[in-house]
């Protein structure tokens, strides 16, 4: 999911009706704000909201390396090298929240930070249903990519760095992203993800 501020009262109620108990936001603090065209919304008190930024907005070298912001799976290795502890916390928080009901994880676009955390989580061998195969990873990442591309098509406010890609261009871009995503996941098999969590006491 992308920005939670895009969700109106009806959408929040639909999430509750579908069994969502927890919404986890991995954006940095400056990103969390209501914008002019965002709907006014009432969030059901039954839904727990957790903020766990996977990046430190004050880490200048990281942002210089990934200016204007990390927007591609090619940046995942740098994110893990720099903020592996934060990503580990997000992974375990999502995993542990499953005992309370459905969980929604989101960033701003619902594509890259969301894809990073979910990709590593779905590598773990002890999750319900076992680790994901590549087809499942591909579906998860692609759903976020399709979603934000469609948002760019319909949004009345243009994005400063990204724009809508027509189908042929989008499929080419998606293929590049998925190729990079697959290389990253091969470098992070389930046992390595588990070691990361153990190393941070999670």
TrEMBL record:
It comes from the Bacteria. GO terms for molecular function: phosphoprotein phosphatase activity. Gene3D superfamilies: Protein tyrosine phosphatase superfamily. Residues 85-122 form the Tyrosine specific protein phosphatases domain. InterPro entries: Prot-tyrosine_phosphatase-like (IPR029021), Tyr/Ser_Pase_IphP-type (IPR026893), Tyr_Pase_AS (IPR016130), Tyr_Pase_dom (IPR000387). It holds the Pfam family Y_phosphatase3. This is Tyrosine specific protein phosphatases domain-containing protein. It comes from Enteractinococcus helveticum. The lineage of its organism: Bacteria, Bacillati, Actinomycetota, Actinomycetes, Micrococcales.
């Amino acid at each position: 999911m992308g920005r939670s501020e895009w969700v109106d009262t009806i959408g929040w109620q639909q999430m509750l009706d579908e069994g969502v108990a927890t919404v986890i936001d991995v954006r940095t603090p400056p990103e969390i704000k209501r914008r002019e065209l965002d709907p006014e919304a009432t969030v059901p008190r039954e839904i727990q909201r957790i903020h766990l930024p996977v990046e430190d907005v004050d880490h200048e070298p990281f942002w210089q390396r990934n200016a204007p912001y990390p927007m591609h799976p090619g940046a995942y290795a740098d994110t893990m090298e720099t903020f592996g502890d934060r990503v580990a916390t997000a992974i375990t928080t999502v995993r542990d929240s499953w005992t309370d009901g459905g969980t929604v994880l989101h960033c701003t676009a619902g594509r890259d930070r969301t894809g990073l955390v979910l990709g590593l989580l779905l590598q773990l061998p002890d999750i319900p249903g076992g680790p994901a195969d590549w087809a499942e990873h591909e579906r998860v990442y692609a759903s976020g990519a399709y979603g934000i591309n469609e948002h760019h098509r319909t949004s009345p406010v243009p994005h400063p760095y990204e724009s809508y890609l027509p189908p042929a261009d989008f499929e080419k871009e998606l293929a590049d992203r998925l190729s990079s995503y697959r290389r990253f996941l091969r470098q992070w098999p389930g046992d390595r993800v588990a070691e990361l969590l153990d190393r941070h006491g999670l």
